[in-house]
Amino acid sequence: MGINYDAVGFETNETVHHVDRVSIKWFARAMGDANPIYYDLEAAKREGFRDIPAPPTFSTTFRDEEDARLRERVGFDFSKLVHGQQEYEMPGPLVAGDILRIKTRVADIYKKEGKSGHMILVVTETTARRPDGSTAFIGRSTVVQRP
Amino acid sequence: MAEPFYFEDVEVGNELPSIEKPAITKVQLLQYAGASHDYNLLHTDDAFARSAGMPNGVIGHGMLSMAFASQLLTDWAGLANVRKVDVRFTAPTEPGDVVTAGGKVLKKYRDGGENRVECEIWTRTHKGIVTTKGTGVVVLPTKK
């Protein structure tokens, strides 16, 4: 009920995000990763990074009003949502100073029979590009609306 | 950080050096909510979580479990070498859970001029509950 199956193909507007050292530091601290490359510029440079790099799942932090618009378009019932699956593909890590253009597309919506009725699975694909047009990361997310 | 190693040193079936994370705390879930901008009260408000059907109150963010799984790969192969992390969320964590991340090598192959290693990865609590299951891909240098 309430899910708009015709939202497949809907794409958010592109938004611009800046990767910064402080956000990376707090993210690494929250996940309990003490690797000095996330906190100390010299340590990062010794490991060959041009600035403080971000852990692979830092890509989850780029949330904004466009995501809210997408969820509204799909018609999610927030009280029944579960994160089912997440994938990130990247040619290398994000580093502080990166400027990313990010947009998300609804790739698929389908039903699946579960133990307690049918579940609705919504697959979205997020693409982040650098100013030169190269891909910084691709995220694929499956969110499940339980019965 | 692990010692540098090469594509040739890795065999299909090899286990990745597992990592054990400190017990998840409620403060950590607040920190993770702020750091990731995931403000779902399921992770930070016990009363809300109970009303949503979680018997013991707040549960950990799925993406925090995935962060643990990705740290397995970055600790092993180095952050610069991680190309893909892909997990299914099979169960939530709770405060107090001590999570171990582990995995093993599934496949070695060349792609895009890189020597890639695909690994099975998982995270599991001290109670034996598997919280994520998936695959990771890293690149490794060759001796030649």
What fold name goes in the CATH topology slot of the domain at 5-19 and 63-145 in chain A?
Answer: Thiol Ester Dehydrase, Chain A
What multimeric state do the chains show? heterodimer
Q: How many β-strand runs of chain B?
A: 5
Name the average pLDDT of chain A.
95
What does this structure look like?
- The complex is a heterodimer of chains A (147) and B (144).
- By secondary structure, chain A is an alpha+beta fold.
- Chain A has a domain at 5-19 and 63-145: Hotdog Thioesterase (Thiol Ester Dehydrase, Chain A), CATH 3.10.129.
- Chain A has 3 helices and 5 strands, in the order E-H-H-H-E-E-E-E.
- Chain A has helices at residues 21-31, 41-46, 65-74; strands at 15-18, 81-89, 99-114, 117-129, 135-145.
- A 5-stranded antiparallel β-sheet of chain A has the order 1-3-4-5-2.
- In chain A, a hairpin with a 5-residue loop joins strand 4 and strand 5.
- The radius of gyration of chain A is 17 Å and the shape is elongated.
- Chain B has 144 residues and is of the alpha+beta class.
- Chain B has one domain (11-139): Hotdog Thioesterase (Thiol Ester Dehydrase, Chain A), CATH 3.10.129.
- Helix content of chain B is 23%, strand content 31%.
- Chain B is built from 3 helices and 5 strands; from the N terminus they run βαααββββ.
- Chain B has helices at 26-36, 46-51, 62-77; strands at 19-20, 82-89, 99-111, 114-125, 130-139.
- Chain B has a 5-stranded antiparallel β-sheet with strand order 1-3-4-5-2, with helices on one face.
- The chains are: A alpha+beta (147), B alpha+beta (144).
- The interface between A and B is medium-sized, with 34 and 35 residues.
- Strand 2 of chain A pairs antiparallel with strand 2 (82-89) of chain B.
